[in-house]
Specification:
Layout: H1 2-23, E1 30-34, H2 41-57, E2 61-65, H3 72-79, E3 87-91, H4 94-101, E4 113-122, E5 124-128, H5 137-146, E6 151-155, H6 161-173, E7 177-181, H7 185-194, E8 199-203, H8 204-212, E9 217-221, H9 236-239, E10 248-255, H10 260-275, H11 277-285, E11 289-290, H12 295-316
């Protein structure tokens, strides 16, 4: 009985200290780790939203880029951090793709973190060199089946979102297309522009100039809905593969066991930041659409996405070299 009383007393003290900490949060600089290289879409989104969140919270949010190992290095750092709201993580779909590709890791993508919110969605697009003898998704599927092994597509690398989005397309449509992995999307884009590969999945924003001048042909967006930046481009689901949807989202996480009051404070700040006109204008310029969903909804998205991409990785045979 004495042990139970002592345990209850300890728990009460812990709850009280957590509540007190949350009431005074934040009292110092917050570090937002981005497990990606600087200057990319994910990094720019994190900087834009983080700067505005810092103003709302009355502190500074410092961006700490930790690229490498497909995002594992930065992610492991946050998973091991003290859950006090002063170390956060910016994530993209690779967060739930990595578990199927990397068996050696020190965290669980769901259990090791507290969801805060999805900051924004961006769009990827299925592209073709204009020399190909098809102009639509349906025609691509038919042509690839009649000419097995003849078409190839470039990706940003094995296990990347651009690779797995195409593998999902192949799985759902039966298209016969050969994968050619590159070391980054820029190299893949260069080769599809040159006609060295016929197809690629790439970001919409960096390829829009090539689409508009006719150097690339847009067949369909991987997203669940059309993009305001290019409303004339249909989704892949609309263009011939019903049910296909792969949204490229960017979200915020905190380490597991971060006090709920602190998660709530971070969520409120993120929602306000994403509603700010300056933030929305900057995101629109990036081709990104603000989301600001609840922690619970973000948690459901993470679980659903992990199930989807684990299946795609398994069926594609993708392995990290």
């Amino acid at each position: 009985m004495k042990h139970i009383v002592m345990a209850l007393a300890a728990a009460s003290l812990l709850i009280a200290s957590s509540t007190t900490a949350a009431q005074h949060y934040p009292t110092k600089v917050i570090r937002l780790i981005v497990p990606l290289a600087a200057a990319g879409t994910g990094d720019t989104l994190a900087r834009t939203v983080g700067e505005e969140m810092g103003k709302i919270l009355g502190t500074t949010i410092v961006i700490d880029n930790r690229p490498g190992a497909g995002g594992l290095i930065g992610t492991e750092t946050v998973a091991a951090a003290t859950p006090d709201g002063y170390t956060l993580l910016a994530v993209s779909p690779s967060h739930v793709i990595n578990p199927a590709l990397h068996t050696r890791r020190t965290y669980d993508p769901l259990k090791s973190f507290e969801p805060i919110t999805v900051m924004a969605n961006t769009h990827q697009v299925l592209l073709a060199h204009p020399s190909v003898p098809f102009r639509t998704v349906r025609e691509l599927i038919a042509y690839s089946k009649k000419n097995p092994g003849k078409l190839s597509y470039g990706s940003a690398g094995t296990g990347s979102a651009t690779h797995l989005n195409m593998e999902l397309f192949k799985s759902m449509s039966g298209a016969d297309v050969v994968h050619v992995p590159y070391k980054g999307s820029t190299q893949a884009r260069t080769d599809v522009l040159a006609g060295q590969v016929q197809l690629a999945v790439d970001g919409l924003l960096p390829t829009l100039p090539y689409i508009r001048d006719g150097r690339l042909r847009a067949l369909g967006l991987t997203s669940s809905r059309r993009s305001p930046a290019a409303p004339d481009i249909p989704t892949i689901a609309e263009a011939g593969v019903p049910g296909y949807a792969s949204d490229t989202w960017y979200g915020l996480l905190a380490p597991a066991k971060t006090p709920k009051a602190i998660v709530a404070a971070l969520h409120t700040a993120a929602v306000k930041a994403l509603a700010a006109p300056a933030t929305r204008a900057r995101l629109n310029a990036l081709g990104a659409e603000p989301v600001a969903n609840s922690p619970a909804d973000f948690g459901k998205l993470l679980a659903t996405e992990q199930t989807l991409w684990t299946k795609v990785v398994r069926e594609s045979g993708a392995k990290v070299e």
